[in-house]
Amino acid sequence: MAEKELNQLTDQELIEKKNKSKSDKIISAVLIGFLIGVAVYGSVTHGIGFFTFFPLGFALFLGTQWNKRNQALEKELESRNLK
């Protein structure tokens, strides 16, 4: 099932999505921290290589995607005066 666009959601669904985004923030932070840890461990034990840059690139990608979704949600909430 495809996720609805933010402008198609009801006010109640938007508020629920905002509440869910708080737990998503924690999960994203843990995952990004884990990936940074893998990169540091890989660079300390094996020098700079694949296990240094791949996790860092993936962490950057995750952070960017989460930030875009969060900004779109906040913009939609603000446009409906639900903030």
Largest sheet: none
Annotation, overall tally of beta strands: 0
Structural class: mainly alpha
Question: What is the distance, rounded to the nearest whole angstrom, between the alpha carbons of the first and last residues?
Answer: 28 Å
**Proportion of β residues?**
under 5%
Instruction: Provide the low-confidence segments as ranges.
Output: none
Mean residue pLDDT: 87
Describe the structure in your own words.
- This protein has helices at residues 11-46, 50-79.
- It is mainly α and 83 residues long.
- The two termini are 28 Å apart.
- 80% of the residues lie in helices and 0% in strands.
- α1 packs antiparallel against α2.
Précis, in short:
The longest helix is centred in the middle third of the chain and has 36 residues, at 11-46. Helices cover 80% and strands 0% of the residues.
Characteristics:
83 residues
SSE layout and pairings?
Layout: H1 11-46, H2 50-79
Helix pairs in contact: 1-2
